[in-house]
Amino acid sequence: MLLVATCMFGLERQLGEEIDALGLTRVHTMDGRVTFEGTAADIARANMFLRCAERVMIKVGEFPATTYDMLYEGVKALVWEQYIGSSDAFPVKGHCIKSKLFSIPDCQSIIKKAVVDRLASAYGIRWFTEDGVKYQIEFFLFKDTVALMLDTSGVALHKRGYRPQAGVAPLRETLAASIAYTARPKEDILFWDPFCGSGTIAIEAAMIATRRAPGLGREFAGQSFACIPERAWTDAATEAQDLIIRDSKFEAWASDIDEDMLDVTYENATRAGVEEYLNIFHADARNIKREERKGTVVCNPPYGERMMEQDEVAALYRDMGKAFAQLYPWHVYIITSYPEFERNFGRVADKTHRLYNGMLPCTLYEFFRDPAEAKKPTFEQKKPFEYKKKPDQKKGFESKKPYRKK
Predict the structure, then answer these.
(1) Residue 165 to residues 102, 154, 158, 176, 389: CA-CA distances in angstroms?
(2) Strand pairing partners for 298?
(3) How far apart are alpha carbons 148 and 321 in whole angstroms?
């Protein structure tokens, strides 16, 4: 069967590599989703092991739809009775992008009616109590082609279960895992997050280093699906337990200037099962010093979006630039949405990655070259928009209304 794993924009490549690592075959990749082939057992494994995915869904069907009649007939032609029972619930939600059918409520109504009519014909009933297992139907209408799916994850996969309490500006667990992947956590390299907050980046790094599956300790909607054997979920959990490296020498430091958050970090790490790999302590990131060992600094400092004023953020980044320059030859990874980060940090990143924290566009900056040889940021003064008067052809004089020069 065809399966779809969704993710935040920017994580498609790493999600695809995770799918490859599970021994599954990718079919198609687009912004925010990867389609791949798998069995019922692979649904359980994908939910258990994919660190960068938000949801894993069964693809029921796909067809072109430029009118509501086409949408109705296409949905009704799919074999919904293969998944949904006569008493099961099947709510509908989805998205419409670049399509003639752009009204989400109308699409929801048409799809619901088509599924009801299909199941009514299959089961010989007209009234559905919908008090059984919940099968969340997801539609994705993109460029006049609609894909119909069933969500097997339920609660989004970024909610691992170890973080009931987060900081002021939390980083989603899937994004933290992506950043940790990029930094390549290893046993012989110290991993340090000096802006740890609730500890998400350090925790995800420890989980990666010890091969602890992100889905351990939580439940999935698909565990109630009749089409997925219970054995598939127990086998996935057993496989996950067997893969854990229990004698790892990995070490992560998680420090923060806010002492109140350190207790939260410890509690989250304990729930995640990786507290023994974290050294949690109070420290000001502007004063950190390099240890005489190999190390990597990975952090998510304030952006000025939810905490601190813009001038305070700029001052913080200037202080970070001075302090972090002394960390070489350690590698440094910093994620922020602040547009003039490099200007205040004092050097151009050796590599950048465009990511999203929810709907907020961010950039992950990598620094691994000697700061003394790094390129300094240069910013030309932006020219203001030029305006000029547009001739009024009808009245023969110049209009007072300006227009923007292209």
Answers:
(1) 37, 20, 14, 16, 56
(2) 333
(3) 48
Two structure tokens written together for 154: 């339920």
- Nearest residue to 56 (alpha-carbon basis) of 82, 75, 36: 36
E strands in 128-230: 137-142, 145-151, 190-193
- 3-state helix vs strand vs coil in the chain, percent to 5: 35, 25, 40
Stronger pLDDT, 373 or 268, i.e. the higher one:
268
Which residue type is seen at 130?
E
d(CA 44, CA 223): 8
Residue 112 has pLDDT above 90, yes or no: yes
- The residue type of 314 is A
Distance CA 26, CA 4 (A): 10
Cα separation, 246 vs 242, in Å, equals: 10
Tokens of 106: 């109308």
Strand partners of residue 366: 333, 351
**How wide is the angle at C-alpha 370 spanned by C-alphas 366 and 376, nearest 5°?**
75
How many Å apart are CA 333 and CA 296, to the nearest integer?
Answer: 8
| Torsions phi, psi for 152 (to 5 deg) | -100, -5
Whole-angstrom distance, CA of residue 133 vs CA of residue 87: 8
Show the 3-state SS of 259-323.
Answer: CHHHHHHHHHHHHHCCHHHEEEEECCHHHCCCCCCCEEEEECCCCCCCCCCHHHHHHHHHHHHHH
pTM of structure: 0.88
How confident is the model over 229-240, as pLDDT tens digits?
999 999 999 999
Residue 169 CA to residue 306 CA, distance in Å, equals 6
Q: CA nearest 335: which of 357, 371, 363? A: 363
